[in-house]
Design goal:
It is globular, with a radius of gyration of 21 Å. Helix 3 packs antiparallel against helix 4 (75-110) and helix 6 (132-147) runs parallel beside helix 8. It contains 16 helices and no strands. The longest helix has 36 residues, at 75-110. By secondary structure, it is mostly helical. The protein has one domain (2-434).
Length: 437
């Protein structure tokens, strides 16, 4: 418990500050540019998650073989994996940026984005997509640093860049009058600075990361291993987000007021869900290092400890949102009226009532990924995709806004129904593979 908390707490603050990139944009947009601009940003949320989430997932997956080699004290192999992950990240960044920038307007059209918020959505998400290389830079380097047991340093860089993000938001929107584009530019620049700081820190502080010319060579075997870890994790995010895109398309059909309510509630919920993200990433590194060191008995101990933390926090978060949810929503909307506030409150309470299933989704899925069975995590993402897709296709047309509120809880429950038996299977297989009981 102490070890997991010691690693997870700095990581938690990192996720909280990373959320500032999104949350501060939304607060300032909602307060100073109005409900239409807020809805425009919100209507891109699922699309943003599908693309940027893939970047994050791939980089987290690339860090797993690094954690394995670090746990096994094979530093040459570790550096070779790092070098090949850099080559792959560069390739992915270029291809993805070109593809999504070219298709951006078409995708928003396919999603039935309301006309009165379409241009806000297009300008914002286009700039975010141009920043995909910055996302790869930060997520890859911070993942490598964390895989070596240091979760504090990425936090410090995120703290600095989050403060910068707030300043750039205010400067671009209030002083330079750049509108919705200013919020997106502030986000991209802030993440780029975080990535550059991670790079300088690694070069200065980690002698074992001095990669030789020989180690920089492309290794097909290492690339295959990295893709086997990274691509499934990236697809896990993207597959999950496909269901969210279907759901968002249905919500868009309810009008810009409903989109604004979903946006405000979603931002508050994402912020409160950061501890679950931190627990998940902690268990990925924890699982990877202990498998590398062949200490399988510690997996169950870690799972129990982290589960206790997850359940305790889930109950606390629900209580806070039950009594103070309206106060958090009011940060995002200044002129939205009772309809937006009521809708946002309904969604917040419905989602937070199911935070315990969400805790298990993150803890178990990332532990399975960390020990090297990423395909199971992808299947869990498929479960979430199916649940959200069905909610978008059937629940929202039948129940309206209430159907949208139920989508995420249904996705978490269905994912858990798969993940719990999957973990039991993975643990038995590991015991057999490594000869431990």
């Amino acid at each position: 418990m102490k070890l997991i908390l010691g690693f997870a707490v700095p990581l938690l603050f990192g996720f909280l500050f990373q959320q500032f990139y999104s949350v501060v944009d939304t607060v300032i947009v909602g307060q100073f540019l109005g409900v239409k601009a807020l809805a425009g940003v919100g209507s891109t949320g699922s699309l943003n998650f599908m693309i940027i989430g893939f970047c994050m997932g791939v980089c987290n997956g690339f860090a797993i073989p690094v954690a394995h080699k670090f746990g096994a004290k094979d530093y040459v192999g570790m550096r070779q994996f790092i070098a090949n992950s850099v080559w792959l990240s560069g390739l992915f960044a270029v291809v993805m940026t070109a593809a999504v920038v070219l298709l951006c307007r078409n995708i928003l059209t396919w999603m039935n984005t309301p006309e009165d918020i379409f241009e806000y959505a297009y300008i914002y998400i286009l700039i975010i997509f141009w920043g995909i290389p910055a996302s790869y830079l930060y997520n890859l380097l911070s993942g490598i640093i964390r895989s070596m047991g240091d979760s504090k340093t990425p936090l410090m860089f995120l703290l600095l860049s989050s403060v910068l993000n707030i300043g750039l938001d205010l400067l671009c929107i209030l002083t330079f009058r750049m509108g919705i584009a200013g919020a997106a530019i502030a986000t991209v620049v802030s993440q780029l600075i975080s990535g550059v700081l991670c790079l300088f820190y690694m070069k200065k502080k980690f002698d074992i990361l001095e990669i030789s010319r020989e180690e920089w060579k492309i290794n097909p075997s290492h690339m295959k291993t990295l893709c086997g870890m990274g691509v499934p994790m990236g697809l896990q995010y993207s597959i999950t987000a496909i269901g969210s895109v279907i759901l968002q398309t249905s919500v868009n059909s309810l009008g810009s007021v409903a989109v604004a309510a979903v946006t405000a509630a979603g931002k508050v919920s994402m912020f409160f869900a950061c501890p679950f993200d931190a627990m998940g990433s902690t268990m990925a590194t924890y699982g990877g290092q202990n498998v590398g060191a062949k200490k399988l008995d510690r997996l169950g101990m870690g799972l129990r400890s982290c589960s206790i933390l997850g359940i305790g926090y889930a109950l606390l978060a629900f209580a806070v949102l039950f009594f103070f949810g309206d106060n958090f929503v009011s940060l995002f909307v200044s002129d939205g009226g009772a309809e937006i506030m009521d809708g946002a409150r309904q969604m917040l309470l419905t989602m937070s009532a199911f935070y315990i299933p969400l805790a298990f989704v993150n803890i178990i899925r990332f532990l399975i990924q960390g020990v090297g069975f990423s395909a199971f995590a992808v299947l869990a993402g498929v479960c979430e995709m199916v649940a959200r897709g069905l909610a978008g296709l059937f629940l929202v047309p039948a129940l309206g806004f209430t159907g949208a509120c139920l989508a995420s809880p249904l996705a978490w429950i269905l994912a858990d129904a798969f993940l719990i038996p999957a973990y039991i299977h993975v643990r038995r297989k590991l015991d057999k593979m490594l000869g431990e009981n």
